Amino acid sequence: MAENHAPIGFPVKSLENTTVAGPAASEGIHASFLVEQGSFTLDLKLDLPGRGVTAIFGHSGSGKTTLLRCLAGLARPKHGRLCVNGDIWLDTANGVFMPTHKRPLGYVFQEASLFPHLTVTGNLRYGLDRVAPASRRVDLSKAAELLGISHLLQRMPAGLSGGERQRVAIARALLTSPRILLLDEPLASLDQKRKLEILPYLERLHDELDIPVLYVSHAPEEVARLADHLVLLDNGRAIASGPIADTLARLDLPLAMADDASVIIQGVVAGYEPNYELLTLQLPGNHLSLRVVHSPLVEGKPMRLVIRARDVSLALSAPEQSSVLNVLPATVVEIVTAVNPSQVMVRLDVAGTPLLSRITRYSHDHLQLGVGKRLWAQVKAVSLLV
Predict the structure, then answer these.
(1) Ranges for the Mop domain (predicted)?
(2) Is the pLDDT higher at 63 or at 386?
(3) Global confidence as pTM
(4) Which domains occur in the chain, in start order?
(5) N or C: which end of the chain has fewer CB within 10 A?
């Protein structure tokens, strides 16, 4: 962790001199927590991937930060168990509690909390020096290169922008050679310009780290851009947890009822038409492709696409002449009434790829839609997350 804290608000049974390791049950994070804080209760059980970015998403007060504090040992659950890639950090039934400073994790808060009297190098060495040389998995130069701060090493924190300070804080956390990285709304205090500055570096961490990253956010665009797995919290409960593409396409969740309801698709650059500035993207697992107006990108490059439900219209036959670039064969999987009762939400299957469409109830009745019906999805707009 970037800072050394003790668990707050609970009597501590320390395992300071004990090596706590359980059998290598399975890879990933397996957590169950019951925390009671006044009128608020966090009660959840999660099984999360052992690498990649898991987004913890929910409105203010849903329990996102409390969950991270339990993972870090900053809050001690009344009942709970935590196993990280086979190592047991918490097991209240057996009296096991690994204190925060013994947990191999990195924690980055909304504010960078750099030491103002140390240079960037000094701040980074604080993280590095907390790990025995034989246990170090990341060196200072690698962390600086990953976060794009090599040119800032001799600067003082007061001379850094907000985005630069956060990148230094993340690098410092990485230099503790963590088994898990916790990011608690690291972009919340930044303006839009600084957010756009730091997002590419967070994407690099996503691509290059082999440890799980838990990313707390209430910003859908950050979640869409970074996450592989999504946990949706509401009032201290996990109402959904799963791969982001599948979870966003679920019509039984509040996200599908939002005005900007959308799905995420992982495509691959398949070609470019310079005369029209059109990028062709191969959809996963099938022969279908999408075309989008964009500058050229390297063929074979994986890309994330966002398609909003409001940008997908439906037709019973393929239009012979249309300005819509992408018309895809689809099958109706599910239909539910939208928040506005004059509209319906339709979940589609496009050769294995989920898609959402928001249409009027009149169109639903006019097209005589039903589960299993084959039709054509006209995708009016596609957003690339670059």
Answers:
(1) 321-386
(2) 63
(3) 0.84
(4) 29-248 (3.40.50.300), 262-384 (2.40.50.100)
(5) C
